[in-house]
Design brief:
Elements: E1 3-4, E2 10-11, H1 15-33, H2 36-39, E3 40-49, E4 55-66, E5 70-72, H3 74-82, H4 86-102, E6 110-114, H5 117-121, H6 123-136, E7 143-148, H7 149-152, H8 156-168, E8 172-178, H9 185-188, E9 195-198, H10 200-205, H11 210-225, E10 229-232, H12 238-247, E11 251-252, E12 261-262, H13 266-274, H14 280-284
This protein binds ligand C2E and magnesium ion (3 copies).
Organism: Rhodoblastus acidophilus (Rhodopseudomonas acidophila)
Protein name: Diguanylate cyclase/phosphodiesterase
Domain EAL: 24-274
Length: 285
């Protein structure tokens, strides 16, 4: 009866699981039949330079509005898509839409794209991804690829080679959700990384927790010592922001600055930041 949850911990089989499994099967069925081009929309969340408070890039976040299921959270449908080849079609749709949007932004605004381990490990998927990037006309130096550390552990050597190939094309590589997976500091320096994104769970613990603050400070120091850029996600309060800046974090992302915004609103958001009306007003208030 022993099952494993997503963290690989053994859990008992309960009726709840049966419901979950039925839900997963339903999501998978709807996703398989979905017209992704139509049903997947993007939201964009800005990443800010912690000192200058200028936009570094927008992260593309997939939103699925299923005719049968309604709005489904990416925390549900992305893992389901990742169980099969469905993820490749989802990734291609997100990349096409995100790169098309990025073409209308100023050159200094990058675009951050989440890739799944499966994308990196499939030569065919990777070839298609490169073709989409090349056809987009977006300069590769504007594109940031985000991968999670857990995703790299399935086949470290293959993933490392795939990232090195993307890096040779001029893309930037970020390690996403750092600290949540089975991170081994022994391999991090072997990866062709540009940035490390500290997971938001660390940032959220900082409030009134000296140990959590020390951990974040140490992580930021470690990332700096590796000569990598440090990004923190999930910044919700100006207290968190002040500490992160003091600790030397380079780039920040979170509800304090902006929630993910619909694709059409990105150009106006850029204009407002350029006019000095964001995000300082939020950070100060
Ligand atoms: P992620 O890549 O770590 O994205 C950041 C998530 O944190 C987003 O959730 C974002 O809305 C949320 N977030 C940002 N700032 C804050 C904050 O201040 N407080 C809180 N509480 N949350 C914040 P979202 O959009 O629900 O996406 C969840 C995850 O789904 C993403 O985590 C990513 O792993 C995955 N995902 C989303 N879109 C894609 C995609 O196109 N491809 C792939 N492979 N994965 C995706
Ligand atoms: Mg991400
Ligand atoms: Mg993240
Ligand atoms: Mg995260």
């Amino acid at each position: 009866h022993a099952k494993q949850n997503h963290r690989g911990e053994a859990v008992l089989f309960t009726p709840e699981h049966e419901t979950n499994m039925r839900m997963i099967a339903q999501i998978e069925q709807c996703l398989r039949r979905a017209n992704l081009e139509q049903e997947i929309q993007l939201e964009f969340q800005p990443l800010f330079d912690a000192v200058e408070q200028t936009i570094v890039s927008f992260e593309a976040l997939a939103r699925w509005n299923s005719p049968e299921l309604g709005a489904v959270s990416p925390n549900l449908f992305v893992p389901v898509a990742e169980r099969s080849e469905i993820i490749h079609a989802l990734t291609r749709t997100v990349l096409r839409k995100a790169l098309k949007a990025a073409r209308s932004w100023p050159d200094y605004v990058g675009v951050s794209l989440n890739l799944s381990a499966r994308d990196l490990l499939s030569p065919r998927a990777l070839t298609q991804i490169v073709a989409i990037i090349e056809a987009s006309g977006v300069k590769t130096s504007r594109i940031d690829i985000e991968v999670t550390e857990t995703s790299l552990l399935t086949d470290f050597v293959k993933a490392e080679a795939a990232l090195a190939m993307l890096k040779r094309l001029g893309l930037k590589i970020s390690l996403d959700d750092f600290g949540t997976g089975y991170s081994s500091l022994a391999y991090i320096h072997r990866l062709p990384l540009d940035k490390i994104k500290i997971d938001r769970s660390f940032i959220q613990e900082m409030h009134g927790n000296g140990v959590a603050r020390d951990i974040v400070k140490s992580l930021i120091g470690l990332i700096g010592n590796l000569k990598l850029q440090c990004v923190t996600e999930g910044v919700e309060t100006s207290e968190q922001f002040d500490l992160l800046r003091k600790f030397g974090c380079n780039v920040v992302q979170g509800f304090l600055f902006s929630r993910p915004i619909p694709q059409d609103e990105a150009p106006r958001f850029i204009a407002e930041v350029e006019a000095g009306r964001r995000p300082a007003e939020r950070a100060a208030g």
